[in-house]
């Protein structure tokens, strides 16, 4: 009979594994109490956009369901970008991820290739990858397809895989020194390679909190990788628009329920939401990235849903919406299917582009 820590680990593993199977369910709501992280927040003014009024997304959804895709290559970076990375000191980061099909995307065709649109960097979530087509590992295929269809080129759209892309390892992924350093270096590499003054960053799920810390920089601590370290100065001036999709910026209620028993939910570098209003006991990494606001870029937006089956509980943690980023300029919020955890990413390329290119949520 399983009990204690072993039981909590198994329960947490199951919850996190939802991230890789893409099961669409309604966000569960429970009765509020003084010790209930899911207590609803005070209502705020926001724009609710229903599926029936989203004409561009409806067209995109129809094309997606009928198979009118895909332009996103799964062969990885272009030869030109690969050569540049090796020649400019980025070889050790293994941004290419040739061990995976769809491990990376982007790059110029040749030195004559121009970069007109501001480069967009896509950062995936836990157990996902750069480009894919299977449930839970669709990566940024839909977004890249849409951006290319709207005039962007391969030299203006970039993605890498920061983790193992293995659903069985999802409970063990956290805001590690390796991941933060890699994501930060990738942002710097794309900016230098393209010669752009600024880049745009679009991220999903755990990629949101990882990218926020990577951009913020500064001190951090990873006991499993040598203890205290410093990421360096902020990259705020390098980012024009930051879009966080379905991120657990204030933690996950499921991590509270399992008492932070896995690395993903841990109280140091995990998504532990604290044990009481405030929130009190919020994980160190989340406390850090929420201590100040609007450092992620000149413009900060979020896309999320109250029926997110992975975040759960109406996306509420200790009276506030966990998917919102402090100081954000605006958001696209959904309240009904089909906008669950993955569809908030895969069905919203129209809004992703509107945000990064036009700084608009409509």
Keywords:
single chain; 362 residues; alpha/beta; Rossmann fold; 7-stranded mixed beta sheet; two-stranded antiparallel ribbon; 10 helices; 15 strands; 17% strand; globular; disordered N terminus
The parts where pLDDT drops under 50 for at least 5 residues are 1-34, 42-55, 65-69
SSE class: alpha/beta
Helix fraction, binned, reads 25-40%
Q: How much is the average pLDDT?
A: 87
CATH class annotation: Alpha Beta
Through-space gap between termini: 53 Å
Number of helices: 10
Q: Strand order of the main beta sheet, please? A: 1-5-2-6-9-12-15
Number of domains: 1
Proportion of β residues?
15-25%
**Would you give the CATH topology?**
Rossmann fold
At the fourth CATH level, what is the homologous superfamily? Alpha/Beta hydrolase fold, catalytic domain
Give the ordered list of helices and strands. Answer: HHHEEEEHEHEHEEEHEEHEEEEHH
**CA radius of gyration:** 19 Å
Shape: globular
Strand tally is 15
